[in-house]
Amino acid sequence: MQKLKQWRPRQPIGIGTFIGLSLVVGMGSAACTGNMRFGQVSPSQGAESTMAADDAVNGKNSSARTSALPQASSVEETPDSLVLPLALLSPEERADDLMAVATGTHLNQSQAVPFDQSRARYLLAVDARTLGQPTDAIAHLENLEADYPGMESAILYQRALAQDASGDLDAAQQTWQRLIQVAPNQPFAAEGLYALGQREGESNSPYWEQAIAQFPSHPRTLDIARAALETDPNQPQMLLLLAHHGLHDPNIVTVLDRLTQDYADQLQPIDWEAIGFAYWEKWQYDKAGKAYDQAPATPLNAYRAGRGAHLGGRIQDAIAHYQAAVQQFPEAKDTAQAFLHLSRLVRAESALTYLDQFHTSFPERQSEGLLARAKVLEKLNSPLSAQQAKQSILSQYSDSDTAADIRWEKTQEAIDAGQLQQAWQWAGQLVKENPKSSWAPEAAFWVGKWAKQLGHSQEATQAFNYVLKTYPSSYYAWRSATQLGWDVGDFQTVRRYSPALTVDWQRSPLPAGSPMLQELYLLGQDKDAWGLWQVEFQTPRDPTVAEQFTDGVLKVRVGQYLTGIFLLDNLDWRAREDGPFTADVATQTSTYAYTVYPFPYRDVIRAWSHQNDLNPVLVTALMRQESRFQPAIKSVAGATGLMQVMPATADWIANQIDLDTYNLTSPQDSIKLGTWYLSYTHGEYADNSMFAIASYNAGPGNVAKWIDRFGTRDLDTFVTQIPFPETKGYVTSVFENYWNYLQLYNTELANQLQRHQQ
């Protein structure tokens, strides 16, 4: 089992700053940048813990019977089991082993743990129903709840589904009724209420009304709201239900627009807060700012009212809201960024007054205040005072991110002036004083490159080894590995590099969630675990690290890769640390690594990569950057699908390969077209993958101009000279993805890195 030793740069401080995931797409680009967070925005009414619901099923002493189910854990430990290692296999691949465990005839039956036979029967039932064999499913589930305490409501749910599929509607009706009677507070009861209401065929079914009242955040309840709106679209309460709990709904922005345009006079401040939050999470910052303006007066809401206006181009409104925030909440954490924004928006003389207040209210952020002051002093034609402020940062706050920014700026100035020795010294100082800065991996790598150019070969080797050991998941670790001669593929060889790929990972309990949720997750029943989590997760706007980690993992497991990966990538600044499961602990787990770098569509990627003579890891790395594996995603420019192919480019490719029909949202078609085009771009540049990847993003015309302008003598230097920031970031991100996939899924490299760390 592999882990990625994570290097995590510090994120800018201040909720609402315009940072976040930049989803860069090729052949017509879309940048999706911002603070993304999907989830509930108000507590679920009547939601109770799974353990409490187990009491309703099993009696007062049920806690003793359910204790063997896995518990949420802050320590990553793989449970012993004959069944759990089979959870991620296909029904066909695991059928014989599951049947052997279920019947007690497995060759290693002596190693079975409590509940393994029950787990095997449960999965056999799920698989049978999936394969269209509901009668077999019913047989596997017979009396299973007696042997599988803590899973009663899940078993009843599966039995009702199987009975429905078998055509025995009366038996299914009785099972749905039993489910809501014996487990009324369990999230699975929402499934029963939904099914019973659906049978009545009335949008105002009492069952559906009960689901809305008791489980407003459950996915089935949101289905009820959508169904009601299809019958009568003029139902503001149903729109509000979606606004509060349906952030993962693909049409949520339309819902929010309808509420703000048609029902504004009916909305309460708490509704405006929910709407503002939802707009914010969908990157609709201007609309979010207007909604937050009508939300309850809190430091965060006041700040976001200003920031939304700022990002929406309403500068005078932004100034007014920022001023209101600093007046109402001068010492609140969320207000700090408002002071800094004001210093950039108002006249220089007024800016200094705000920075004086910032200095008094936020002493822990003095380095940022000094840098802002330096910029204001430059506007006031006081370069000496500005320089003194920057020098104070370097001397008094040497280990701050602000000091790192100044050192990197000095490094770049020295390079531009042709002063290689000075650049080397500035970069070395940055690495020493600011090792956690986002600039540090790049600076450390260039310390090695420049040392090599200056004839200091020993220092160069030390620098490259340092990057590999200290920042092993960075793009610059890969570049350092190539400099040290590791066989990991270089710009010129990576296309046809053919690494052996294996998945050596088994799930372990998540750090948050009920025992039933943990069991379903370990069994690979992700959709059901996700449904439980929607009810259990009560604090989506103020999550702990454990909660955001669990939320991100489950989102990825149900196919919400874009959001889930973002949440995991940003644990340190979007989540509240509460207990031993910190962001540092989280990012060292195998669960983190394999979730942030998932490998969906593996067989299709391998097939078309082979067809087009491409490294499948490189294709996966590009796809992760292009679409985050969302098959229907579409950029503002029109690029569509997993490989983000522009329609016009797709037509041209289809003509080249005699393809009559295709669908860009189809994974098969997108990968087929995208890999052909990636192969074509490689052919245009003599199989140089760096140029091919840059061309995929910026187009062959631009890359040709850059080659003429910068030459090809040093490809690392070429990457830094790419004049499009988007393309420069795209190239480094794709190859960083490549490097991390390689060290996760290639055992040989993983072992080599482990030896290097030791």
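Next protein, fold it too.
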Amino acid sequence: MQTETIVYIIIAGIAALLLALFQYMYKSKVKSNLKYSLTALRTIAIFGILLLLINPKFESNTYFDEKPTLVVAVDNSESVSYLEQTDNVSSVLETIDNNSELNERFNIQKYSFGKEVNSLDSLNFNERQSNISEALKQFGEVYANQTAPIVLLSDGNQTFGSDYSYISKSVKQPIYPTVLGDSTVYSDLNIKQLNVNRYVYLKNQFPVEIIANYNGSETVNTELKIWSGNSVVFRKSIQFNENKTSEIISTTLNASSVGVKTYRVELTPLTNEKNTVNNSKNFGVEVIDQKTNIALVYDRLHPDLGTLKKSIESNEQRSVSILKPKDYLSTINDFQLVILYQPNNSFNSVLSEITKQKLNSFIVTGTTTNWSLLNNTQTYFKQTITNQTEDFQPNLNRNYSTFIIDNLTFDDFPPLKSEFGNLKFLVPHDVILTKSVNGIDTSQPMLSTFEVDNTKHALLAGEGIWRWRSQTFLNSESFNDFDNFIGKLIQYLGSNKKRNRINIDYKSFYNGSDDVIISAQYFNKNFEFDNSAVLTIVIKNKTDDSVREVPLLLNDGNYRVDLSGIESGAYDFTIKHNTESVSASGSFEVLEYNVEQQFLNADIDKLESLATASSGRAFFSTDINGLITDLLSDNRYATIQKSTKNIVPLIDWKYLLALIALSLFIEWFIRKYNGLI
């Protein structure tokens, strides 16, 4: 309590006493000893009221001990089971649970992880991928303000995510890798990497690059074969030794028919080779009979041009040519779609030709767009010309129904610069994005699609989408979400197919460790998205004709089903409405490949590097007692005494109010009883 407040309280006490004395002692008619009782009661009441006005604050300190947290993270991936380390994991966890000194010293929190992190409930070692870096990153964020060493039970074989060797810079906690596995070196052949394009073209040859590795010290001979069904389409003899432990094999294969084609690369195993699973790998290609050629017509250089080209060409089925208007007119028949970037006077002939030939188009406008030209050369939309620009942020229309938009919300995307003024459509259109200013939605279209005279068109009112692609990478460390969004827009514009009441989104083939996710949208007869539909997918295995039905769940504006973990093979599927005769069909193939079974040993070197970089120490699972001893003897993990200061204002003390009321009541009662009132 401050000195100033104490002075006020003393003054209040003196003032209360003087007021009471003045009333009951100075020229008072009360002659008996009652006046002393009444003076005391009045002093208490006045002093209490003055205390409430002063409202002094009282402080109290509560002291408590805070133990450091010990994070125990267990790798729940299949590789742990494949390396026969499940018993060691159970033994380590049991030892930690039963060590009373460790439990008294630390607040122990247990987690399991594969591709994602979960609280440790039970272990089944069936996770198809392991993301060590993401697990450590999350622990670093959750325990950023605590002392929380991390015990990492893992074989160190990461199959998903960024390299965890450098994660210690952001985790800021000592990491103690507990190695699940041994350091024994076995002679082993494996296919380290296989590079091939996802799409190839009919009657063309496509390249295949294979990186074959050898672990061992002896000279060995093997043969690499590429199988297509039961036929060998390529073979090569390879010799490895202590000095030559890797070889890159490059070849080309023929694409002779359209569709998904699967192949298997195989290295002939060594005698008594311990792990032969990693000697083979399946891959697939989709053979297509043509490539979609897209013209990107411009008259002004801008970063958006490169962004559009990179995003569109991320799908190998598409090729983008950046052309001047005159160059496009001379090759107009070579393209299935044209993108007009900020049309000006030089686009006059191009716009006329698009209307004349009824071509599909995508118009991107910005600060140098000639809106007078656009308003006069087409009858689809009109822009109010103000000769002023404004920065507009995107707002996603979640009811957009023409194609499925996944994984992008546009909430934190940078603004685009666009013409200020109303943009009015004169034909039926669907809005993907609207413009917003300072978080207020203007309901003005930013990105829209529309169909006229059997042609499809899109209009983006704003320049600067290169920032959107960059923001996508900042959000997810990948350009894929933005590229997929642009790819779906281009796919819609490049096709003249009629709209279906069920739109489906899937891949033609999946690798064995991929997430097999199929998305769908269902529309009523007015082509309005229906979020109350009941959709079911019927999946048929082409090999054994087995059939299974799985319901689709509504998730973020789409109906989705996750078939991850489905057995490898070729499948036909049909998505149908349960009460209406509406359906859509497709087919896909799951290639046999388990990335978690490609390892023969624990990655001891990388785990030790992680421990050193984080000021921790690596241990083998058989030396768990050494780990516990190290943790208990480390002075960095001492129990810390902390205090909590609690400040309570007097006005919150209800008993004072009761005391004031009681003293006034007793004073009134005494005076009434003695006839003084």
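About the second fold: The first strand starts at residue 57 and ends at 66.
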